[in-house]
Design goal:
Length: about 450
């Protein structure tokens, strides 16, 4: 059976809601599994101590930074594959994926080198004391190997989603999640003949899981179970493809870098909040709060990715009027969820913190801030869904300018003022985080509804 015969039809305006839901639910499962991996790693670290929790939290930030740099290839591949697939140019889509993997290999090795060099700087910038800096550096350097696997896996998954195949990435991640839980727990506590490695066991478990994900993804793409097929002979340098990918993905990678710069400066504000003996408690509470919040924003990404996939393919099929409806319908389908989560966060903050960490100081400084964060979960949904739809259509420059303005111009100064100058603690710092998210949500909503993004050329 040919690729064209196995490919689902593109939606009309009437069938768009059903298509969105069918695409989004597998991605939702995938994102919840990502949350499960991160949540479980933080839980394991919380049973070991505050230094270990800081190490896991910092590794999460660095892994997020790496994933933003990987957008240089991932976003470009997704946009180009979606347009080609929507236009019925299936072989062209497959060539784009294969040739882009060559870029991914080079990019992932460059990121590995950078993370190996920067690990001590990340630990030093947090002002950590005692054994914590050594744990952070050790963890980050081992985790850098996992980023090589993650980069290539993310590129393959982005290409599959761009064709409308959201089930294969879900299946891969489901298996990966189980591998991570078993491997990390076994190595942390020394099950059976295995040694007890403490926090090192968490990162080794993550490495095993990430390597498994890449193997499974490549196996799927080289078999007959996916619409998209990986041609080994096309994994080579191709100047025209590289330029097209970088032209689309470059602003997205720069947007991510600017966003991370703002988030990292914000993290430094958190690390230097006033309060005798509370540095590690502030950091642990911040990292726990951010990981738990993922149960809200990861599902939002599911509808955003589904909207992006459909918008890109519809623009490739020259159906801009239908493409313009994707984000709007995605928001309407999803909005009930952040409303529910906001209530759960607000009233469940205290028991959640006590369950996640054995130090009562972490709950004392974190509960009020987490309840504040509950109040902007609904605007976050608008931000994430519209952001993804714009990126999927190739409109990557406007989000870049938003990150420059909001991350560096709103989040950091407001957090410093409210958290440090006015001594508002973590609650004051998270006022800055909320101000950033609310501003970007407003800007993304305006950009989407203005409609100019449907004319973006890739």
């Amino acid at each position: 059976m040919s690729v064209a015969e196995r490919t689902p039809d593109l939606p009309t305006a009437e069938t768009l809601p059903g298509h969105l839901a069918r695409l989004a639910f597998p991605v939702l499962g995938e994102k919840l599994l990502v949350f499960g991996i991160d949540f479980y790693d933080v839980y394991l670290a919380g049973q070991l101590g505050t230094a270990e929790t800081s190490a896991i939290g910092m590794a999460g930030y660095v892994a997020w930074m790496a994933s933003l740099w990987f957008d240089l290839v991932q976003v470009g591949v997704a946009a180009l594959v979606a347009r080609s697939w929507g236009a019925g140019q299936f072989e062209q889509a497959q060539r784009i994926l294969a040739r882009s993997l060559w870029l991914g290999i080079g990019l992932s090795l460059a990121v590995w080198t950078l993370l190996q060099c920067l690990a001590p700087l990340f630990a030093l910038s947090m002002g950590l004391e005692g054994d914590a800096p050594r744990i952070v550096v050790h963890y980050l350097r081992w985790d850098a190997y996992g980023q090589v696997f993650s980069c290539l896996t993310m590129i393959c998954a982005a290409a599959l989603r761009a064709t409308g195949d959201t089930r294969t990435p879900l299946a891969v991640l489901a298996i990966t999640n189980l591998v991570n839980i078993v491997a990390a727990t076994s190595l942390v506590f020394g099950w059976g003949p295995l040694p007890s490695l403490g926090v090192t066991g968490i990162v080794f478990g993550s490495l095993i899981a990430k390597a498994s994900a890449l193997v499974l993804m490549v196996a799927a793409l080289t078999s007959n179970v996916t619409w998209l097929h990986l041609d080994w002979g096309e994994i080579r340098w191709h100047r025209e493809t590289a330029l097209r990918v970088v032209r689309v993905g470059g602003p997205a990678a720069l947007e991510g870098t600017l966003k991370f710069a703002g988030h990292f400066l914000f993290l430094m504000v958190v690390a230097h909040l006033p309060g005798p003996g509370l540095k590690e408690a502030f950091l642990a509470a911040h990292f726990i709060g951010c990981r738990v919040e993922a149960v809200s924003y990861q599902p939002a990404w599911a509808w955003g990715i589904a909207s992006a996939s459909l918008a890109g393919r519809l623009l490739g099929a020259t159906s801009p009027d239908v493409a313009l409806q994707t984000g709007k319908i995605a928001v309407r389908q999803f909005l009930w969820y952040p409303m529910l989560i906001a209530v759960a966060f607000f009233f469940g903050a205290e028991p959640m913190f006590h369950a996640m960490h054995k130090d009562p100081e972490v709950a004392r400084v974190g509960v009020a801030a987490f309840r504040l964060m509950a109040l902007y979960q609904v605007p976050n949904a608008f931000l994430i869904i519209y952001f993804n739809t714009l990126i999927g259509a190739g409109d990557t420059r406007f989000p870049m300018w938003c990150s420059l303005t909001c991350s560096l111009g709103v989040r950091v100064p407001v957090a410093y003022l409210c958290g440090v100058v006015l001594e508002g603690g973590l609650f004051g710092a998270w006022i800055g985080m909320g101000a950033d998210n609310l501003t970007r949500a407003a800007l993304m909503t305006w950009r989407y509804h203005a409609g100019r993004w449907i004319h973006t050329k890739v």
